[in-house]
Amino acid sequence: MRRKRSLRAALAATVTAVVAAGMTVIGGGTAEAATPLPPRVFAPYFEAWTGESPAAMAKEAGVKYLTMAFIQTEAKGSCTPYWNGSTSTPISQATFGEDIKTIQARGGDIIPSFGGYTAGTTGTEIAESCSDVDKIAAAYQKVITTYDISRLDMDIEVNALDNTASVDRRNKAIKKVQDWAAQNGRKLEVSYTLPTTTRGLAESGLALLRNAVSNGTKVDVANIMTFDYYDNQPHDMAKDTETAAQGLRDQLARLYPNKTDAQLWGMIGVTEMPGVDDFGPAETFTLANARQVYNWAVGKGINTLSMWALQRDNGGCPGGGARNDCSGIEQNTWDFSRIFAPFTSDTKPPTSDFSVTTTPTSGSVTAGGTATTTVRTAVTAGDAQKIDLTVSGAPKGIATSLSPRSVTAGDSSTLTFTAAPEVKSGTYTISVNGAGADVNHSASYTLTVVGDNGSECSASPWSAEKVYTGGQQVSHQGHTWKAKWWTVGEEPGTTGEWGVWQDLGAC
Predict the structure, then answer these.
(1) Of 96, 208, 380, 460, which sits 20 to 30 A from 438 (CA to CA)?
(2) What PANTHER family is this protein classified in (predicted)?
(3) How far apart are CA 471 and CA 478, in angstroms?
(4) Minimum mean pLDDT among 98-102, 136-140, 440-444, 457-461: which range?
């Protein structure tokens, strides 16, 4: 994944040499048993160079686990790890220590990630930068013991992926750390995050895993970045995730012939980029895509679901290109996180839980008018808790309001829809989201809008789960659309002029 390069201190080289001289050697350090990750985890990437608090942002987004990006050396040739390659953010309790303790106290954890796109292009990925296997292993061990974590992620891209010497050093260093952890009774997992094609790993990524097998290095999760394909082909981003992961599963089967089908799927992770990726609008991952991927991931039993990155999960730049701080599409803040968060399967259910429903579950509003529904909550386990309510999915021209916006489980709120005089006809699925202390729940409401032309769209509303063939028509966002060929999960209005859906105009 991409990030902007940090500024360097004037005496960084001198500081690097001093810190490297005091590096813990493999075999030393404490080995307190960290809490293992759950068997299924949603762990979005957190951009660690922004100055934001990972604990505060995780709580706001309603997620328990984060993949923290990135750890790399300050300069090529160094063996000392830093957050973001900056000597001002060393691996120590003073850097993110309190945030990580807070996340762990809530029952979550972080996954430190080594590497990334910038490290892969500047020679500062630690196994590429450092030629000493023991020092690389010591760097991994220092991160594990400093933050008391149970998984390390290796995000290997561009030059670092093609450097066969560094690939071998890295796997040898990981094996040393795995042996150290086993000798000390410590749970440790390792994930490799790698670029992918729509049909599985390219040869360089596959060669990296072959090298791991030859070195006796255990790879717990092969996590593929299902975006930035740059192949100039039409893309159904959800379907491409499925075919890329199927290809990876088949590649893993050849590397690990003794594993069952369930075990192979349990080795797989996928990382999405919400909204517009670096290639541009032709590779746009929509909220409908996210719902499809979520259902697929649960059904297949994959290990890890992630996204790049938590800071992008907002609609602050609709119609824009790829940025690190927004998705480039129209959405509410945390829409993607709220879809993916339930993927995490904890060993224990929350002690207190609740439900969210709408009564009625559907209704209509006329241009210039209003409509209401009651949002009901109930205690389903434990004690009543505060629930913060939000609404997403309303089309342009429909304003929503909740009164009150926060309730105690067992109480109700009134959701009001106000239609502008010029609103267009259509049928829309509105999501009412409830965020509690430890869990989130949502309910759907189907809103039919009778627009300023006095009629409703006659075609059936588009469904992300339904298969459409050439010539079939649907209504979506106040327009009628015709499918040019077979499709499933591709949202009308997101596929572009040359995509599957032809816009037949407003209805």
Answers:
(1) 96
(2) BIFUNCTIONAL CHITINASE/LYSOZYME-RELATED (PTHR42976), GH18 DOMAIN-CONTAINING PROTEIN-RELATED (PTHR42976:SF1)
(3) 19
(4) 457-461
